[in-house]
Amino acid sequence: xxxxxxxxxxxxxxxxxxxAIEHALRDLGYAQVNGVRTGKLVVVDLDTDDxxxxxxxxxxxxxxxxxxxxxxxxxxxx
Length: 78
Known about the structure:
The chain is of the alpha+beta class. The chain has 2 helices and 3 strands, in the order βαβαβ.
């Protein structure tokens, strides 16, 4: 079963890469851009057909390696 995990910085954590992208977009003439936050999408292929087990395992992977729980949040997507 494949699951997607979206990892992003928690609200209030400075996103330097997002700010750099925002400034670059404005420099390109996109004045309507009013904020950019970046993240990463991780696709995990798990050897299980049980959706509940797959989601629990994905959450465990995030807590141990894929996300830094101090500054990042994650969401397991279907």
